[in-house]
Design goal:
Helix content: 40-55%
Number of helices: 18
CATH class: Alpha Beta
Number of domains: 1
CATH topology: Rossmann fold
Order of helices and strands: HHHHHHEEEHEHEHEHHHHEHEHHHH
Largest sheet: 8 strands, mixed
CATH superfamily: Alpha/Beta hydrolase fold, catalytic domain
Shape: globular
Strand order of the largest sheet: 1-2-4-3-5-6-7-8
Length: 431
């Protein structure tokens, strides 16, 4: 059944390409035919500058692997399927029989089915667009892979967003960022979605290490993909916001202590975007326990109560001994919905306040009535104007007059999921 589906998809992709050629529209990117996003067509001269730190650390990471191999993808998918299956049984032993997590898992399945019309369109772009470079190796662990979303327009160096996906530290996966990646690529922004080990394959220190390695790879190699090493932005969503914040702060502390064994620098990150994240683990233990992520499992993920301080960015920022490290942090913007029950918006409010008191440049943007998934899934799938997306693009394109002009006249994006399904999904969402 799976092979027959693959055959039909390949035939569909081939037929689509032939139709484009016959209609004289072969130059239009494949993913744009599905998502109907505007395609940039600029003649901006190529920037010749490259950050000195990127040149200094260039030898620290492996060279990029550009060629996509279908057989390699199949082999990698088979290995990941086996790994995920075995880890699922291990996770079930941790979870045991519990009413809360089982009902939320059922709700997650129903939620995904309701949004399936949009997910399928994005999946076709993800697997068949030449603008998506999948599973680029950045380290030696099984999950040390990242996906690159490249703009159709290759003129000039592009700004870059390194994105760390969420997933409750258990079900995170790089493909969860495909919708954001495809959208930003249509605005001439390269997106690197970093994968990382999940629990029980790894614990929080492994996740932070993987994220840091992924960031390092992008900083040292993105110029080879047309990215501008002087315009790299770091972003995380939910658990990914927590992991990426930990990685950023860890790096700042290393640099403040003048450690020499570093492969990237905080100064290479122009800004950090935290979406619906939690930054103080002490305040989240009981909250997650009530929502089905039981205290024993959460503490296992975070390596015990004694490690909560180490992996709570808010607590570490508040530590006077880290003042020099805080001064090295890039501008930080935290986004959160006020109706977020998975991670309350107070998590971002308090963290922003803590950062400001410590001397860091931090802004907080709250979205009234938005839930944990509204900002990241329902709103983008709805099409039209998306306030979060527009704010991200405006920051990334700040100072680029030509890009801002193109953003101003870009047509609204096409709806991918009917409104009724979006409303039902919002009601049933387990997040």
């Amino acid at each position: 059944m799976a092979s027959e589906t693959d055959r039909l998809l390949r035939q569909s992709s081939s037929s689509a390409a032939e139709d484009m050629a016959e209609n004289g529209d072969a130059s239009k990117p494949f993913l744009c035919r599905f998502l109907s996003y505007p395609v940039a067509n600029t003649n901006t001269s190529s920037h010749k500058r490259r950050r000195r730190l990127a040149e200094k650390f260039a030898s620290a990471a492996p060279r990029p692997r550009r060629q996509q191999s279908f057989s390699r993808d199949i082999g990698h998918a088979a290995k990941e399927t086996y790994l995920i299956t075995s880890l699922s049984f291990t996770l079930l032993r941790y979870l045991g029989v519990g009413y809360r997590w089982m009902t939320r898992l059922l709700a997650l399945g129903c939620y995904a089915m309701l949004l399936m019309p949009g997910f399928l369109q994005v999946a076709i772009c993800y697997f068949f667009s030449s603008q998506v470079q999948r599973s680029i190796v950045y380290g030696d662990q099984p999950r040390n892979r990242l996906d690159l979303y490249l703009p159709a327009n290759s003129d000039g160096k592009k700004p870059v967003v390194v994105f760390v996906t969420g997933g409750a530290w258990i079900i995170g996966y790089k493909a969860w960022g495909s919708l954001l990646g495809l959208q930003l690529a249509e605005r001439d922004i390269i997106v690197a979605c970093v994968d990382y080990r999940n629990f029980p394959q790894g614990t929080i220190s492994d996740m932070v290490k993987d994220a840091s390695q992924g960031i390092s790879y992008v900083c040292n190699n993105i110029a080879d993909y047309g990215g501008d090493p002087n315009r790299i932005y770091l972003m995380g969503q939910s658990a990914g916001a927590h992991i990426s914040a930990c990685a950023l702060l860890d790096q700042a502390i290393k640099e403040a202590k003048k450690e020499e064994s570093i492969s990237w620098s905080v100064s290479q990150i122009k800004a950090y975007f935290g979406l619906s994240g939690g930054y103080n683990l002490f305040n989240l233990v009981d909250h997650f326990d009530n929502r089905g992520l039981y205290r024993s499992i959460f503490l296992s993920i975070m390596e015990g109560e004694e490690s909560l301080h180490q992996f709570s960015p808010e607590v570490r920022v508040n530590d006077p001994s880290n003042r020099n490290a805080v001064s090295l942090l890039p501008p930080i913007t935290l986004f959160h919905g006020t109706a977020d029950y998975s991670i309350p918006s107070d998590a971002s409010k308090v963290f922003a306040d803590t950062l400001q008191k410590a001397g860091a440049k931090a802004d907080l943007i709250l979205y009234d009535g938005k839930t944990h998934t509204d900002l990241f899934l329902q709103d983008p799938l709805r099409g039209g104007k998306d306030e979060l997306f527009d704010q991200l693009v405006s920051v990334i394109h700040a100072g680029d007059t030509e890009a801002l002009e193109k953003d101003a006249i870009a047509p609204p994006r096409r709806r991918l999921v009917p409104e009724l399904l979006l409303k039902l999904a919002r009601c049933i969402s387990p997040f």
